[in-house]
Amino acid sequence: MLDELEPDSLIVGANGETFRVSKALAEAFQPGDLVIPIPQQGLLHLSNTERQIVDQAVTQSVAAFTTMQQVTDDQVTDFFHAFRAALKNDKVWESIQTINEHDVTMAKERGRSTTRLQVSETMRTNMIDGLREWAESEPSRNSVVETVDHDQFQIQLRTAALGVVGFVFEGRPNVLADACGVLRGGNTAIFRIGSDALQTARGMMDLALRPALIQAGLPTDAITLIDSSAHAAGWALFLDSRLALAVARGSGDSVELLGSLARSVGTPVSLHGTGGAWMIVGDTAMPEILKQGAIKSLDRKVCNTLNTCCIVASRAVELVPVLLDGLNEAAAKLEQEYRLHVVEGSEDFIPEEAFARKVAINRADGQHEEFQASILPAADIGREWEWENSPEITLIVVKDLQEAIQLFNAHSPRLVASLISNDEQEHQHFYKTVDAPFISDGHTRWVDGQRALNKPELGLSNWANGRLFGRHAILTGDSVYTVRVRYVEASNGLSPT
């Protein structure tokens, strides 16, 4: 523990890497603060204030977890109904919207994206539907997974609550409702939400979520919001070894950092910091399926939006214009223009006027005049385009399907891979060789918990940091559990439930 830091002093990390203390860090450091060296990133400063805020929140969540083991499944169901009713209440929703309008205004002033920050009627409907689905779902605690019978005894494998689940999310208010699904299994949740959405999250907690917990007789700390906008609060949360699971969604670099912090204290993680779906167009692709696939995959920018399209050279002359038609139609639906990045070597398949034509592109910090098409270095093929309202993708013409698969495995975030082909053997080969948890034969936007599984999604995990153990890549409330093993003596006549 250090009481002070000296400017220009050196701190040695665990792997021997040295870090120099900046003047700003030395001035900001206070007794009780922590400084953590992170390889290739630098020094993380965790103030004692943020650490205390997080420690108290986790302590409360741990206590709530103990209480949750005593509540009934009917009480949990009552909570979902009460939370749902609160969101359906127009006066409550209007109050949440008023708070959210301030968050949106402030985010716009900072040049931040607000497409997923604004609490629209669609978001309201999705939250209400999700809570209904959890209310109607079968209780998942104490379910018998397997029994093994012996001569004088029986072994029972039964599901059980996992513990405290820590969430760090970007500015998306709806995650508060989505993640409440962990309560179905007897778990508790603690959140650090992005600063853009913090005021909205506070409003939802005060006006809808916490009253629903009270009404159902659940501990009020079963869902806890860390009341801090500092990134350090998220770092401190994921460094708390009392978490049973750490879930992070946001930008790639920040999520990678959070994941490394959680792993450093032995906490399992579910991480999703990158998206950028890929679509590969094979020799037998039907033009209309390609066009509709592009249109459906570009309705808005989320993690499963089409980002990179690979078209085989044998069909490029015919199918590149089809893709451009789809791009144009998708943009027209949004009343915008599209933006195209052409990997060097593929530019001959694009009309020359596209590289000379300037169009208005809507970005988070306002409207920009940009060339509709531009050349992209091959090394940037996996770059994810964070567009606001103007569809934006990368195009590359490849030799064959195998080259496209190799490019995906090497450069993509390894999340969503779609093959447009009319050849069953190609699809079989694609499925066996492409390294992605989500495989499609059409559009990419289906990758979503609520849309695909009819369950609100806590997070998606890609394979950029290794394959998952024992479960699929959509994390939902009922997939957060552990298994207890119970021995039952035959002679005692007990049949535990």
Question: What's the helix and strand layout?
Answer:
Elements: E1 10-12, E2 18-20, H1 23-28, E3 34-38, E4 42-46, H2 48-68, H3 73-88, H4 90-109, H5 121-136, E5 144-149, E6 153-160, E7 164-169, H6 175-178, E8 188-193, H7 198-216, E9 223-225, H8 231-238, E10 245-249, H9 252-264, E11 269-272, E12 277-281, H10 287-296, E13 306-312, H11 313-333, E14 339-343, H12 352-356, E15 358-363, E16 366-371, E17 373-376, E18 392-398, H13 401-411, E19 416-420, H14 424-433, E20 438-440, H15 449-453, E21 457-460, E22 474-476, E23 482-489
Parallel strand pairs: 7-8, 7-10, 8-9, 10-11, 12-13, 12-19, 13-18, 14-17, 14-18, 19-20
Antiparallel strand pairs: 1-2, 3-4, 5-6, 6-23, 15-16, 21-22
Give an overview of the whole structure.
With 497 residues, this protein is of the alpha/beta class. The protein folds into 3 domains: 10-46, no CATH class; 58-274 and 473-485, Aldehyde Dehydrogenase, Chain A, domain 1 (3-Layer(aba) Sandwich), CATH 3.40.605.10; 277-451, Aldehyde Dehydrogenase, Chain A, domain 2. The protein contains 15 helices and 23 strands. Strands 17-14-18-13-12-19-20 form a 7-stranded parallel sheet, sandwiched between helices. Strand 7 (164-169), helix 6 (175-178) and strand 8 form a beta-alpha-beta unit. Helix 3 (73-88) crosses helix 7 (198-216) and helix 10 (287-296) runs parallel beside helix 11 (313-333). The radius of gyration is 25 Å and the shape is globular.
The figure for the number of domains is: 3
The end-to-end distance, rounded to whole angstroms, is 50 Å
**Which class do the helix and strand fractions yield?**
alpha/beta
Strand content: 15-25%
CATH-defined superfamily of the largest domain: Aldehyde Dehydrogenase, Chain A, domain 1
Low-confidence segments: none
CATH topology label of the largest domain: Aldehyde Dehydrogenase, Chain A, domain 1
Strand order of the largest sheet: 17-14-18-13-12-19-20
Q: What is the global morphology?
A: globular
Mean pLDDT: 91
* Portion of residues within helices: 25-40%
Q: Report the major sheet.
A: 7 strands, parallel
* Overall CATH class of the largest domain: Alpha Beta
Named CATH architecture of the largest domain? 3-Layer(aba) Sandwich
Using the CA coordinates, give the radius of gyration. 25 Å
SS summary, helix count: 15
Number of strands: 23
